[in-house]
Amino acid sequence: MKRFADKTVLITGGTSGIGFATARRLLDEGAYVVITGRHETRLDAALARLDAAPERVLAVRADVASLADLDRLMERVDAWRGGIDAVFANAGVGVFKPSEEMTEADFDHTVDVNFKGVFFTVTKALPLLRDRASIVLNASWTLHRGLSVASVYSASKAAVHNLARTLGAELAPRGIRINSVSPGYIDTEMYREFNTDPEVEARIVADIPLGALGHAEEVASAVAFLASSDASYITGQDLVIDGGVLGSVPSQDPSEDPSQDAAQDAAQNPASPPSQTPDPDPASASAS
Asked: What is the spatial distance between Cα 256 and Cα 107, in angstroms, rounded to a whole number?
């Protein structure tokens, strides 16, 4: 029996990167999957790449920062499957600048998608969540380490993990579990689009104890575990998928060369126009 046989899973930001890899993984494990994105053309392309039976996948255009969009999303899911067994709140954005250069619009956009969007994705889904459902939130390893030019982004991701802890306690009486994942340097489409400097990548890889970038499929495996009954006694936790970065000492103190520190930050989380990852608008290299 497949772990997600006849289960319904909602994945926000599911058109590329970690969200897409998770959709593919859960389809392989028997799930009915709902993916969201902000652009119809990218949703259509994702459906073609997933190559699943039409009755197994529902694609819905939705911006998680819009409560009206979330209401419409839940109506579509309810009409399609009548309930939800797991949610992966994955959509997020990144704006990376020195703090003194952050505008109110930058701040609001980051918080609207990364924190407000995640919170209301969960709360709007609650009426559809079946008892003993599972929720996984996409946070980021940056919530555990101070990084230059990432103050608002890191704070928004810390808020995401704190939601996992507090909502984990709140939803426990229904048997609903909620956890977060914190990806590190993940080799996604966005990473390749924005990190074109081999020297910067060499420095990044040198600071990863496992000696390589991660892959979206590896994060998807972690999400699948937390969303499954295999993690039935785990809630309120954060699972870091970073190749050992947080547990190691960097090969060079970033303070010795701030320009290289900023370059690494940009490779991990390149600055971008407003967008939702992993909808492949420029946003976060790890799609987190």
From this structure: 29
d(CA 235, CA 214): 24
pLDDT tens for residues 104-125? 999 999 999 999 999 999 999 9
> Quick check: 160 and 111 in contact, CB under 8 A?
no
* pLDDT tens readout for residues 48-103: 999 999 999 999 999 999 999 999 999 999 999 999 999 999 999 988 899 999 99
Query: Could you give the number of structural domains in the chain?
Result: 1
In DSSP notation, 245-268 reads GGGS--SS-GGG-HHHHHHHHHHH
Predicted model pTM: 0.87
- Does any domain span residue 282? no
Q: Above 70 in pLDDT, residue 132? A: yes
* 276 found inside a domain: no
Question: In this structure, is residue 279 part of a structural domain?
Answer: no
Catalytic residues: 153
Residues paired with 280 in a beta bridge: none
Can you tell me the distance from the alpha carbon of 225 to that of 232, in angstroms, rounded to the nearest whole number? 10
Task: Spell out the long-range contacts of 67-74 with Cβ–Cβ below 8 A and sequence spacing 24 or more.
Answer: 67/120, 67/124, 70/120, 70/121, 70/124, 71/124, 73/10, 73/34, 73/36, 73/124, 74/124, 74/125, 74/127, 74/128
